[in-house]
Design goal:
Layout (H helix, E strand, L loop, with lengths): L30 E4 L3 H10 L8 E5 L37 H7 L3 H7 L6 H14 L3 E3 L1 E9 L4 E8 L9 H7 L4 E7 L1 E4 L3 E3 L6 H5 L5 E3 L3 H10 L3 E4 L3 H13 L7 E4 L20 H8 L3 H7 L4 H4 L4 H13 L9 E4 L2 E10 L2 E8 L5 E6 L1 E4 L3 E3 L38 E4 L4 H4 L9 H13 L44
Parallel strand pairs: 1-2, 1-7, 2-3, 7-18, 9-16, 10-11, 10-16, 11-12
Antiparallel strand pairs: 4-5, 5-6, 8-17, 13-14, 14-15
Length: 502
């Protein structure tokens, strides 16, 4: 009996032609992906395995792949298991899996003995870079400027700018650093997938300070680049009670001297609460819940989402324990650490007192009391928001159907609902929380969503997906009464007329 062939390593990258600039530039692509973060990187990896092949190109304005590089604090781990890589939950045999990455680095045995179910964030970033370095359909340094529908050709037109240079910045900054020239191009595709990701959210009261040059008010996305300056500051305030805020507070706490920590940790939430991580609670991040949520009325969905913050914005229980342990350790010789942790607080306004001091005007949301806090630096662990794409999609706006709040309507297969005259599809990734729920940004659903999109585009189901993924039934099934009448069921006795009953 012949042994089955073992999957080999990913193919070496070729010099793939760039969209709109090769000898076959007039030939439309099956798919153009806008952005190359983890979501579209997953789609590119799974598209690489579609039988018969797909003509695809993924355009990303950054010069190379990078995943939250400013938050890769030493020791920080993903909050999802390693199986939530780019492909495994849709195709465990894919050559682009995390385990395949370990094998290519000859690290399978060390990983096996490490018994790590949750890998370090830095390792996830390295894994994604390995995939991006080996896939030939990714084109970095390409900024998409406009997407429009061409009714005469029944194709999407994608205008882009190829950013020159090899600088370390992103987008146009990279080209400017090297002093190179930018060139423009146009490509055509039957389908589009938007995966532009999110951008750091700066609360309005702090935006003027964050935008001012030289003022030490930074978003957590840039933490590592400013860490040395923060450690040197006399007092640092961290705002935000999610995982990033907790990791940054812990990192600063460990690095500052006992008794002179000079730290405040503030949050609007009512508590520094753990993330919901029970087995059944985690089933909110299954396709079953996604389908249930999508079928709910718009107003019901909007009412549910704010109350689910602890499903995805809480803190890992281990991180909470490590913070408490570190604070407790600093009380062993008497006294309390110079660290204040206060939940339930909002920042009303903020301003500069001097070149080295910042004043925060605070309000306790339950007490209704107000106070002021003077600090030397502020780290905003205030999360991310969907990146606006209105300018890029201005040419498609007349075709896009919106809900009552002006948001794009998105069907169950992640397609924008467009006018019937548009025969192509525009799919979205990590931009559908309002229609698909809290799982939209979760890494655990990345592969499943990519497989759903590819199944929809090809109509051939190259990635069969499970019909059931959770033990929980999230709603009551609405079925008509299909019970077979007794007299028609041969397995039951026929009813006896009343006149014959004894």
């Amino acid at each position: 009996m012949t042994a089955p062939a073992r999957p080999g390593p990913p193919p070496e990258p070729d010099s793939a032609p760039e969209p709109g600039h090769d000898s076959e530039s007039d030939r439309p692509l099956d798919l153009i992906g806008v952005g190359a973060g983890p979501c579209n990187l997953s789609l590119a990896a799974l598209a690489d395995g579609v039988p018969g092949g797909l003509a695809t190109a993924f355009l990303e304005q950054r010069p190379r792949f990078s995943w939250h590089s400013g938050t890769l604090v030493d020791g920080s781990t993903l909050q999802v298991p390693f199986l939530a890589d780019l492909v495994t939950l849709a195709d465990p045999a894919s050559p682009w899996s995390f385990l395949a990455y370990l094998r290519s680095r000859e690290r399978l045995f060390p990983f096996y003995f490490a018994e790590k179910f949750h890998i370090h964030r830095a390792e996830y970033d390295a894994y994604c870079r390995w995939v991006s370095d080996n896939l030939t359909t990714l084109h970095f340094g390409h900024r998409v400027d406009a997407v429009r529908w061409n009714p005469e050709r029944a194709l999407f037109e994608v205008d882009f700018t190829r950013l020159a240079g090899t600088g370390t910045g992103t987008g146009a900054e990279a080209g400017a650093e090297a002093g190179g020239e930018e060139t423009v191009g146009r490509a055509h595709a039957r389908n589009i997938v938007l995966g532009v990701g999110s951008e750091p959210h700066i609360p309005e009261p702090l935006r003027p300070l964050a935008d001012a040059p030289g003022v030490p008010v930074i978003h957590s996305a840039d933490y590592l680049g400013h860490r040395a300056g923060l450690l040197a500051a006399g007092h640092v305030t961290v705002i935000g009670a999610g995982q990033s805020g907790a990791e940054i507070f812990l990192d600063l706490l460990r690095a500052r001297p006992a008794g002179a920590e000079g730290l405040h940790w503030l949050a609007r939430t009512e508590a520094f609460a753990p993330m919901e991580y029970s087995k059944l609670g985690m089933e909110h991040f299954t396709p079953d819940y996604t389908r249930y949520f999508h079928a709910l009325p718009e107003k019901t969905r909007d009412r549910i989402i704010p109350g689910q913050w602890q499903l995805h914005r809480g803190i890992d229980a281990r991180t909470i324990a490590e913070i408490h342990d570190e604070l407790y350790r600093r009380t062993l010789h008497g006294g309390w650490p110079d660290a204040v942790l206060t939940p339930g607080v909002g920042v009303r306004t903020a301003g500069r007192l001097a070149t080295t001091r910042i004043e925060l005007h605070l309000e306790h949301l339950q007490q209704g009391t107000r106070s002021r806090l003077t600090t030397n630096a502020v780290v905003l662990a205030t999360g991310y928001r969907e990146r606006p794409v209105g300018r890029m999609l201005a040419g498609l706006d007349p075709y896009i159907r919106h809900d009552s709040s002006g948001r794009p309507r998105i069907d169950s297969e992640y397609r924008l609902i467009l006018d019937d005259s548009v025969t192509g599809s525009v799919h979205v990734q990590n931009a559908e929380t309002h229609t698909h729920g809290v799982g939209a940004p979760d890494l655990g659903l990345v592969a499943w969503r990519s497989a759903t999109i590819l199944n929809s585009l090809t109509g051939k189901e190259p990635y069969p997906l499970p019909h059931r993924t959770a033990f929980t039934s999230f709603g009551l099934e609405q079925r008509e009464n299909t019970r077979v009448p007794a007299q028609a069921n041969p397995l039951l006795p026929r009813p006896v007329p009343l006149s014959r009953r004894g």
